[in-house]
Amino acid sequence: MAPMKRQMSRAAHREGVRTHGQRSGDAAESLVADRLSAAGWHVLARQLHVGRAEIDILAIDPGPPLTLVVVEVRWRARRDYGLAEETVDRRKLRRLRSAAWMLRERAALPDGAAIPRLATRIDLVAVEPGGSGGSARVRHHRAVG
Which of 34, 98, 100, 136 has the fewest Cβ atoms within 10 angstroms? Predict the structure, then answer.
């Protein structure tokens, strides 16, 4: 029975069906993008694939100074295995830095939209569910890598 479940899971994955965890992560990214926009940031792209890395959110922080920001969003439903922030390791930061560098070199998003030449930084935003059905807890860490 287990092999059949794996086959269906792989087939569902190929067809673009998102798991519960992926949908939760997508919702966290939407929440963060909405909050950044409400704070005056300009969101340029979401779920942007650059090389082997995926940039969750690429945005411009109005500053001052005006800054291009690669935002890594981490969602954790529980703290059993630590905080969401603890899941970002050196390898992940290296991939994000590499992706940011490639974007700066290209000076354009995959759809052709220009990327402004600005100082660049990497931020980490951790999202956890609120207690008793309250609003989500969001922690924004600037310049993590």
Answer: 34
SS3 45: strand
CB 116 within 8 A of CB 107: no
Helix H or strand E segment including 69: strand 67-75
The pLDDT tens digits for 70-124 are: 999 999 888 888 898 998 999 999 999 999 999 989 999 988 999 999 999 999 9
12 assigned to some structural domain: no
Higher pLDDT, 58 or 81: 58
Six-digit token string for 70: 């690669």
Four-CA torsion 124, 118, 95, 55, nearest 10 degrees: 60
pTM for this prediction: 0.84
What's the CATH number where 126 sits?
Answer: 3.40.1350.10
Report the DSSP pairing between strands 119-128 and 137-141.
Answer: antiparallel
Assigned domain for 25 exists = no
How many domains does the structure of the chain reveal?
A: 1
Q: Is 107 helix (H, G, I), strand (E, B) or coil?
A: coil
